[in-house]
Amino acid sequence: MLSLRLQAIAEEIADNQKVIDIGTDHAYLPIYLVKERFFTNVAATDKSLAVLEYSRANIEKYHLDKQIKLILSDGFAQVKENYDVAVIAGMGAHTITDIIKNSQNLPEYLIIQSNNNLPFLRRFMEKKEYKIIKEKVVYEKGKYYIIIKYQKGKEILTADLRDFGKNYDKKYLQALLKKNQANYLLNKDESLAKIIKRLQKFIEKIPD
Ligand SMILES: C[S@@+](CC[C@H](N)C(=O)[O-])C[C@H]1O[C@@H](n2cnc3c(N)ncnc32)[C@H](O)[C@@H]1O
User: What does the pLDDT look like over 31-86, one tens digit per residue?
Assistant: First the structure.
């Protein structure tokens, strides 16, 4: 069974799209798409050969080695075909933005789940001319995960949307506020104090 986080990512992929999972690790998502949703055009990459061998063993366990193409690749470097959607999940924002920065041929849709630094990621994607078409919050095992679906296209984000997102999830934003307040108590950083004030106002405007 998929984790709630991977399930939420899978829900954002329309049926029978040509999908590539960058940094697949265990290949759970590609296996799920083929096995449970009958996708026919799925690729999985990882930059680590050892990881890819592990993915291969998983894929073979379900006899899906003909349906899932495995590619040893740092980001998109060795990806030769075009895809409708790429998933880049479970990594830090700098790894994700490096992968995107170095790619010549990005797909129409990107589904991104960064483990940190979302304002930096949103700013980078805005400059890269991808627009946020959906943000989702998943809470699993005591952690919040933000999943962002992007489509090619320009948008100008306000500072609030860049910093806090288009998820409008009160519980998540309140947890973010608490984290920022705790950090402020430690280092009394005035720029953080400003962010805290903006975040409080942002949360107040969201209906219960
Ligand atoms: C924590 S796992 C996440 C696995 C899966 N995407 C998920 O969300 O559950 C991160 C994986 O990304 C791979 N990875 C890290 N940087 C990469 C890069 N530049 N190109 C391809 N794979 C990368 C790692 O080898 C590792 O297998």
Answer: 999 999 999 999 999 999 999 999 999 999 999 999 999 999 999 999 999 999 99
What is the homologous superfamily of the domain 4-158 according to CATH? Vaccinia Virus protein VP39 (3.40.50.150)
The rounded Å distance from CA 45 to ligand 1 centre is 8
- d(CA 22, ligand 1 centre) in Å: 7
Domain boundaries, the chain: 4-158, 168-208
- CA end-to-end span of the chain, whole Å? 32
From the alpha carbon of 74, which atom of ligand 1 is closest? 20
Q: What is the DSSP string of 89-139?
A: EEE-HHHHHHHHHT-SS--SEEEEEESS-HHHHHHHHHHTTEEEEEEEEEE
pTM of the model: 0.97
- If pLDDT is split at 50, 70 and 90, which confidence band does 1 have? confident
